[in-house]
Amino acid sequence: MSGLFDDPNPNLLVGLQTADDAGVYRIGDECALVETTDIITPLVDDPFLFGAIAATNALSDVFAMGGKPVTAMNLVFYPARNIPPEVLREIMAGGAEKIRQAGACLVGGHTVEDDELKYGLAVTGLIHPDQVIRNSTARPGDILILTKPIGTGIVSTGIKAEMVSDATVGEACRWMTTLNDLAAQIMTKCGAHACTDVTGFGLIGHASEMALGAGVTLVLDLGAVPVMSGVAELINDGLVPSGCYRNRDFYSRQILDTRPCRGQEPKAFPADELIPLFDPQTSGGLLIALETESAETFLRTAEDRGCFATPVGEVVATRGHTVEIC
Fold first, then answer.
1. What is the per-residue pLDDT across 47-56, written as a single tens digit (0 to 9) for each?
2. What is the DSSP string of 160-207?
């Protein structure tokens, strides 16, 4: 795949090189396009709710870059012979509600007949070329802030097995349908150094990408990472998605667990208690790197405006691994 996606176009401000959340293409001195797409399979039985979750998830990549979504196109893969059209209408209605809530407009889309139901969006946003927030520009000394608790992958597995409480389902769905727009507005005003949204690679995976891109190490405080209620019980019941284990197998070689409570030498391979950190998220929160004073301003502003935000670690000069657990 080497060289396949290299593009010398000087207007391509953000491409694939740093595994960023969206591409950014400059169309003028004052404006650039933020381009992204995302499609998921159903996580819940309610079609309207599924559509809302899928749309929120797709819109998040634009917010993670600091952009403002302006247009969206539906992408639907639909088993027409097995599911009535009323269901499809409800899915797209859920998506349309979130598109409107994000301040964007639906301009079209495409439907493909498929054996498995999938829905998502192609989204275009706008941003000033000088205000793009990348995932690869964190600096030593930055504070890391997370804007949603983790655990949606594990909860979704519990939903499929019908082994999760209504309260836990409700909490997870509330987070998955919460737009990252407010958090993005605040981080832009606070001058965030870097940002990514936490999705399929889990908190560890996306933190590792941030670290690799910037040539730093991200130190995560395990006790400070917010986890949704009911997740620990679901893990104990064995309701862990396969993607969680794949993330752990891949990223474990890049992290170091240094928690002193073990009374042992630091070890490179994480224990099972770290499973939530590898959990693949759908429509997760933003992981934001800000200098100390800006982080304090962010947290105060977020509290005043009703936006969930909590510090979960810091950025340090590289220590030979991407993420350190303390």
1. 999 999 999 9
2. HTT-S-HHHHHHHHHHHTS-SHHHHHHHHHTT-SEEEE--TTHHHHHH
Half-sphere exposure of 155 (CA within 13 A, CB side): 26
Domains in the chain with CATH codes: 12-131 (3.30.1330.10), 143-325 (3.90.650.10)
As a whole number of angstroms, the distance between CA 173 and CA 160 comes to 14
Report helix angle 181-189 to 292-304, nearest 10. Answer: 140
Contact 54, 199 (CB under 8 A): no
Show the tokens assigned to 59: 């819109």
With CA atoms as reference, report the closest residue to 63 among 172, 186, 151, 174: 186
**pLDDT digit string, tens, across residues 238-270:** 999 999 999 999 998 888 888 755 555 555 545
Name the β-bridge partners of 77: 112, 118
Helices (H), the chain: 47-64, 85-101, 152-160, 166-176, 181-189, 202-214, 231-236, 242-251, 275-278, 292-304
Number of H helices, E strands in the chain: 10, 13
pTM of the complete model: 0.94
Tokens 């293409």 appear where? 25
H or E element that contains 36: strand 32-40
Rounded CA separation 165/174 (Å): 14
First-to-last alpha carbon distance for the chain, in angstroms, is: 36
Residues 6+ apart with CB under 8 A from 287: 144, 145, 146, 195, 196, 197, 198, 203, 206, 207, 210, 312
> What pLDDT score was predicted for residue 269?
45
Listed in sequence order, the residues at least 6 apart from 196 whose beta carbon sits closer than 8 Å to its beta carbon are 20, 21, 64, 135, 206, 209, 210, 286, 287
Q: Confidence class of residue 18 from pLDDT cuts 50, 70 and 90?
A: confident
How many residues comprise the chain? Answer: 326
